[in-house]
């Protein structure tokens, strides 16, 4: 199925979850925020939140620097 991840179309398996797509997008383990269809998804809910056709997922990673 197709979903939009950070503004780009992406093909994901039918059983994809927020957690599985976040793992594909970044290897970071901390400093990550996720919004699904403009609603923040708490980290504790990532594995239990399935994705559906045409969902919009934004994965934001905090970056440190000066």
Automatic annotation (TrEMBL):
CDD domains reported in the protein's UniProt record: Ubl_ThiS
InterPro entries from the UniProt entry: Beta-grasp_dom_sf, Mopterin_synth/thiamin_S_b, Thi_S, ThiS/MoaD-like
Protein name: Sulfur carrier protein ThiS
Organism: Actinomadura alba
């Amino acid at each position: 199925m197709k979903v939009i991840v950070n503004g780009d179309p992406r093909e994901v398996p039918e059983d994809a979850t927020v957690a599985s797509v976040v793992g594909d997008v970044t290897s970071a383990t901390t400093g990550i925020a996720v919004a699904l269809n403009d609603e923040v998804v708490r980290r504790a809910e990532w594995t239990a939140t399935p994705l559906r056709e045409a969902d919009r997922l934004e994965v934001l990673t905090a970056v440190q620097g000066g």
